Amino acid sequence: MLRLTLLALAILLLQRLQVTAGEIQTPLRDGSQPRQQPHRVAIIGAGPGGSSASYHLRKFSQSSTGAEETPLDITVFESNPYIGGRTTTVNALDDPRYPVELGASIFVEINHILYNATRDFGLSSTVKLYESAPESKYELGIWDGEHFVYKATKDDDEGSSWQGWWDIAKLIWRYGLAPIRTRQATRTAVGEFLKFYEEPIFPFWTIQEAVDATGLEQYTGFSGKEVLQRAKVGESFSREIIQASTRVNYASNLAGIHGLETLVCMAIEGAMAVEGGNWQIFDNMVYSSADAVFLNTSVTTVTRNGGPRYNLTTDNEEVNARLASHPRGNEFDAFILAAPFQFANINFTQPLRKPPQKIPYVNLHVTLFTSPHRLSAPFFGLDDPADVPSSVLTTLSADMSEKLGDRQGTDAVGPPGFWSISTLDVLNPATDGVFCGPSENCTMYGAKDEDDTQYLYKIFSPAPLTGSFLSSLLGFTYTPPTTALNDPVSSIPKSDITWLHEKVWHSYPYELPRTEFEPFNLCSFFLCAEVGGPSENMWYLNGMESFISTMETAALSGMNVAQLVVDLFKMQQ
């Protein structure tokens, strides 16, 4: 851990002495030692990072016996009506029996925070992430817009979809040593990253400090293509297999994503998800730790109030009134911004010295739908429907990879036109019963007979899908509306698309090669902005997003800052 300099510590203590003793302590009724007034912390954003910050603030403030050594009063603000950020579910067919992840879908066993939280909260996890269409011989295919460059047959035990294709024994005959070299490179990089969780690196004042200590700039400073070439991974395996993974996970080709994130895409052993939705991890984190939670509430203004202390104002007058009723009103000793700075729209009345840089985010279009139709063989240039894989990842040909490799969005997707298609579930009226809820978005068309199977699909794309594209993909007749300016999927008859849900996310940043990362500190005074300067107890979690963007790394960012905040409070006691 990078320690405070003597100058920084002196300034921090001087700031603390400016606060009157009456504000610091309150007497106990029995006349024993005075009890410290709780330190009040605001967390803005209840995604994985903010939820983890709340949970670990409470955890780190307690001693090994469970007693609270550093009393805290934690308030969480979230602009959405739910906790979990990009980990949210919708009910397929408007039926609560079929929750579907709209955003972040999986984590792995080496994701220590998520894995341990799932266990500690008693949540049930599953390794059966995707369903195979019973008529298909193949569980997964990788398509370059013209040909399937790879197909994976169904696993014998069907225990966990999309893991059999990363079986070294199944790949080595075709790609030589490339799979082994990829695994070695992945394990080396992940091994260095795991040092972030332990002393002497944890907790770290800057991501830069941790990156420098582990040598991970050799991965983040170069593209995935360059890192794989350096590891002597063959071009075919890189393009056909690994690039398919970077496209489905980060909507990027190998030349447009840094090497560490590329290798993270291949660390899929032990993939799992929480039954009913991963959001439950973060919901439990918040409600087991926070003293107050305000949903549908955005913080609009942060005003420095000396000490340092901060007054927060929101766009919700009811919440502002509730804050005013608190003994300290809307004043906080520290706050943690757990949302992208560029989207938070917060006014700092004392301007920040070095506000976080604006970075490009992926606009990811997610289309969830059910249909009685399977993926069409002619769409993929095949004759036999059984040869169409249940789920399809995409890549590019060698020529197209050279041409489009470092581009973004619709300019990067190439001939396939989409990033991935997943068959999430196969439903049948005979075994699953009626699966239409009360919404007008769902009708019984296509599910009225016992043999009318419904397929639940998820498509990732860089732009909205059209009705014409989807009808071609599924092989049914469709006439686009003549009155509409475009050709929305919602124009398709409900006999062909029985349920539909579309969502556009700022899903994650473009993970471009870089060697510098945003600090956790937000600073309004020059001393704080200097390297080794004193913290003003304003914190920013989302600099981690440009390093690695996952649920786990967001949670790690929250855990790390929670430890730093508690350590500072302990020094002030």
Automatic annotation (TrEMBL):
<keyword id="KW-0732">Signal</keyword>
<dbReference type="InterPro" id="IPR036188">
    <property type="entry name" value="FAD/NAD-bd_sf"/>
</dbReference>
<protein>
    <recommendedName>
        <fullName>Prenylcysteine lyase domain-containing protein</fullName>
    </recommendedName>
</protein>
<dbReference type="Pfam" id="PF13450">
    <property type="entry name" value="NAD_binding_8"/>
</dbReference>
<dbReference type="Pfam" id="PF07156">
    <property type="entry name" value="Prenylcys_lyase"/>
</dbReference>
<dbReference type="GO" id="GO:0030328">
    <property type="term" value="P:prenylcysteine catabolic process"/>
</dbReference>
<comment type="similarity">
    <text>Belongs to the prenylcysteine oxidase family.</text>
</comment>
<feature type="signal peptide">
    <location>
        <begin position="1"/>
        <end position="21"/>
    </location>
</feature>
<keyword id="KW-0560">Oxidoreductase</keyword>
<keyword id="KW-0285">Flavoprotein</keyword>
<keyword id="KW-0274">FAD</keyword>
<dbReference type="InterPro" id="IPR010795">
    <property type="entry name" value="Prenylcys_lyase"/>
</dbReference>
<dbReference type="InterPro" id="IPR017046">
    <property type="entry name" value="Prenylcysteine_Oxase1"/>
</dbReference>
<dbReference type="GO" id="GO:0030327">
    <property type="term" value="P:prenylated protein catabolic process"/>
</dbReference>
<feature type="domain" description="Prenylcysteine lyase">
    <location>
        <begin position="160"/>
        <end position="571"/>
    </location>
</feature>
<dbReference type="GO" id="GO:0001735">
    <property type="term" value="F:prenylcysteine oxidase activity"/>
</dbReference>
<keyword id="KW-0325">Glycoprotein</keyword>
